[in-house]
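This section describes the prediction task in plain terms. A model, or a person checking by hand, is given the sequence of a single protein chain and must write out its three-dimensional structure as a string of tokens. No templates, partner chains or ligands are provided. The sample shown here is typical of the held-out split.
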Amino acid sequence: MAGGPDAIAPDGSEIYFRVGDAKHASLVEVVLRPGGVSRPVRHRTVEEIWYFLGGEGEVWRRRRDEPAGETVQVTAGDSVVIPTGCAFQFHCTGSELLRFLCFTTPPWPGDDEAVPVEAGGLGEPTV
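The expected answer:
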């Protein structure tokens, strides 16, 4: 992760561009440092697929029709789908960076895509 991130996501995580010239999707690497807890958000129009490359963590997500949501533990080789409109928050629970590839379709339209959520399922954000 030399040179620093290409961007900071609306949820506070570090973003590293991996594929930027696709017309119907985008692919970035997302990094959250040890102990980090993202800000809870939901997306207006995109769906995401996350594939974990390293580290240990947990992902909370809540679909619009769920009262509390669910939390799943993640590590390298796991995948998580974040459906359009689903609130989510993630936390790096290990001593190494939590790293995942994030495939977004349609392509990420900009920072106003992410809508803050009043509260997530993993506590107060640290980023």
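For orientation: The chain has no helices and eleven strands.
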